[in-house]
Give the backbone structure.
Amino acid sequence: MKYSRFEELPVWKDAIELAVRAFELTSRPVFKRYYSVRDQIERASMSISNNIAEGFERGTTQETLTFLYISRGSSGETRSVLCLCERLPGLTDLRSEISDLKSRAESISRQLRRWADSLQNSDIRGQRYLTDKTRSRSKEAREREEFLKELEEVRNRK
């Protein structure tokens, strides 16, 4: 599926949801005691979706990959801080929510890895490099593939 806006990306939506839930967790009064931990969770979780968006908007495959890996790093950072939270006194009552956030961050990390892998194996250099000529060739190739697929379906019906 082709996406024209980062807001359409399932991984971006998951990252936003993770950040929202992280902010809900850190809004608890017990986090006043752990100001720097709260700040780190909020910044790291918010960084995931921001870097997905920035990479998507950059215009080259290489820049997109760079930001996907930064985003993936922020996902790991989020999980690491949440692991710390599981061990901090006063946060034991929140273990279920913390565990849920860790699972969400891990899922996002897997999605980002799959996306990065697909981009690394792609010949597409990115929107910035497209010219009228390359757009035309790409369109022709897509149309050819669609025609061959339809032809194969017709042959299989017989």
About this structure: The mean pLDDT is 89. The chain has two domains: 6-125, 127-158. The radius of gyration is 21 Å. The domain at 6-125 is CATH 1.20.1440.60 (de novo design (two linked rop proteins)).
